[in-house]
Amino acid sequence: MFFSLIKKQFKVFLRNPSELLLLLVMPIGLIIILSFALGSLWGGSNGETMEIEIAVIQHEDELKQFQNFIVEAKQTIPMTEPLLESMKSMLPVSILLDQVLNNGETQEFVKVTKLEKSDLEDARNGGNYNAIIEIPEGFTNDYLTSVFLNKNAPTFQVYLNESEQMTSVVIQNILDYYQYQYSLFTELAKNQLLTEEMTIPTLDITSNIKTVASKDPITSSTYYTFSMSVMFILFLAGTIASHAYLEKDSHIFDRIILAQVNPVTYLASIVVSTVILTLLQIGILFLVSYLIFKVPFTNLHLYLLITFMLSLVIGGVSALLSSLNYRTNSAEASNIFSNAFVAILALLGGSFFNISGISPVLAEIGLWVPNGAALEGYLKLVQDGSFSSIQSIITNLGIQAFILILVAFLLFPKRGGIA
Fold first, then answer.
1. CA 331 to CA 230: how far, in whole Å?
2. Residue 292's pLDDT is what?
3. Global confidence as pTM
4. Is the dihedral of CA 116, 118, 122, 124 positive or negative?
5. Which domains does the chain have, with CATH numbers?
6. pLDDT digits (tens, 9 = 90+) for 394-415
7. How many Cβ atoms are within 10 Å of 116's Cβ, its own excluded?
8. Hey, what long-range contacts does 405-408 have (CB within 8 A, 24 or more apart)?
């Protein structure tokens, strides 16, 4: 019966092509796009650097808008010194121009030209710029109003030169990065959590990414192979937990209980099937990356060891989410995990960028989330790491798996129904 339950899990999973698309095709696509867009464009064999021309048209001075907002907002918001400092650190146009487009990494290949608003049409028709960013009048004032007074957020217009497809991809990645990172720091500033030690991290778009204790450079294709893989397996846990709740909601679980199958056996089948599917998912992603980018897997047995321990953790997460779904009689736990917690874990675990660029404290926390620990282990192995160098990571993952599975079995109802 136990193997029949596992077989059932596989059949349910294979009947959902949209989920296969999310768990396999999407990470493969992201690995390829990020590796080429953020690696080979600047690290080609010819040693040439791509130049990107960006024009910025600002309809109103940002500092003037900030001062006007302070005057208007004093009527509803107590303007304390810490709050004013937070506001100054989150002026959107200054961040975009100074810390994203003109930081030490991007200024080597991005040239920013400020134009007057009367030059917009000529710039659009001339084709001399790869992108034109038009920041409307009152943008900063509207932005601060949306943050502190809960109004609608403003937008700025970006005109891309479609004839330059490669540079358009690069610019889009830069702006996506800016939007994602800046949204994070906006939330920190709103809650007065933005300190002097925490700054907007610079966009790392060079072809080589080095860790703190690196021996050899880690290529961007290698980094994103591991970072995207450990991120997308988190979605697998939420997917299988959602499937488990659907079986409860459709009374399949009750029929399994009536067939004298122990609920512990049912939950164990969720853990085992998740482990197997996780191994298959990572195996496929690694194989594709090996074939396309020649990502090295010299100590294959150590990669398998980390992957197996990570799969146990994902199995524990899936079981715990299933238990919470059954306890609450809803799929809310797995939905919240997939829609919110996966992004948080990916951020802390370094799937998007090196989290130590924000805060060493967050970087340490990232080593205690499953995807962050596994990513650290994979990167150490790429740099000729041995078992001793990943022993603490294996122990870390083992502890996480044990705790998650234990709590899941303790919470899981011992009969049909809610509990």
1. 23
2. 87
3. 0.59
4. positive
5. 2-37+213-411 (no CATH), 46-204 (3.40.190)
6. 999 999 999 999 999 999 887 6
7. 10
8. 405/271, 405/312, 405/315, 405/316, 405/319, 405/320, 407/320, 407/323, 408/267, 408/271, 408/316, 408/319, 408/320, 408/322, 408/323
